[in-house]
Amino acid sequence: MKKPLILIFGSNDNGRLMLRRNYSDSVTGAGGIPLAVPFGIDEDGLKQLADTADGFLFAGGVDIDPSYYGETVLNDTVEIDPIRDSHEAIAVSLALASGKPVLGICRGIQSVNVFSGGSLYQDIPSQINTAIKHRQTESAEIGTHKVTTEPDSLIRSIAGESTFTNSFHHQGVKVPSPLFRVTARAEDGMIEAMEGTGDQYVLLVQWHPEFTSGTNEVSRGIFASFVDACKRLHV
After folding, report:
1. Residue 1 in this model has a pLDDT that exceeds 80
2. What pLDDT does 235 receive?
3. 208 is catalytic
């Protein structure tokens, strides 16, 4: 069977495309071919890539400009990258229109949500009274808080009723896009996973399975599920 080609959307690091190897290794380990998408490609070029690809992975990174969901910057914790925002606004639209599988991780859940009509908490410590450290200080290989999944969801089929996740974010989904349903939450109510409501495979998680896909069954299952969905395009 042909290995699926997965487009990965990474960070703009002072003019350089930055993507942790964990992402590409996780895709490769699940049987896919990762391709990091550079910045500077126009909409026609992105559409050509989207037509060629079998799936889309939106990776972690800095914050999304709150003007995309009708707000001004809350405080100086909000770190914006206009180049990445404009790039992903187009890419998310193309990915969702393609009908092909989509996986969003950390910023990825936020990006896909915002660019399809949802909004975010700009700074969880300033806006929510919670004892949970959503930006943990422990190693990325350690799950530090509990996430509970919803019945009859993809994430429950992968993770069971609950799992402990690693957590490195100060923003989170506030109002979900009407295109998705919430399928997992932290104990303080923070949205931790969302999925598509139609036939398209869309799995969006707030944590970082790419760090532990080689050692953790749930993390490995997330990538296996995604890449398997991409493989089915060729069946």
Report:
1. no
2. 66
3. yes
Q: Is 59 helix (H, G, I), strand (E, B) or coil?
A: coil
6 beta partners: 34, 55
Q: Is residue 106 annotated as part of the catalytic site, yes or no?
A: yes
Tell me which of 134, 195, 208, 230 is the catalytic residue: 208
| Integer CA distances (angstroms), 42 to 79, 83, 102, in order | 24, 12, 21
Active-site residue identified among 88, 192, 195, 210: 210
Contact 31, 20 (CB under 8 A): no
pTM greater than 0.85 (yes/no): yes
In the predicted model, what is the mean pLDDT of residues 210-234? 95
CATH number at residue 58: 3.40.50.880
Distance of alpha carbon 121 from alpha carbon 17, whole angstroms:
26
> Which of these is catalytic: 87, 106, 145, 169?
106
The pLDDT mean for the chain works out to 96
Written as six digits, the tokens of 122 are 């700009």
Is the distance from CB of 140 to CB of 118 less than 8 angstroms? no
pLDDT at 234 over 80: no
Structure tokens at 57: 């992975």
The reported pLDDT for the residue numbered 50 is 97
- Domains held by the chain: number: 1
Residue 15 has pLDDT above 90, yes or no: no
Q: Tell me the residue range of the domain where 104 lies.
A: 5-234
* Cα–Cα separations (whole angstroms), residue 162 to 21, 106, 136, 151, 218: 27, 18, 19, 11, 10
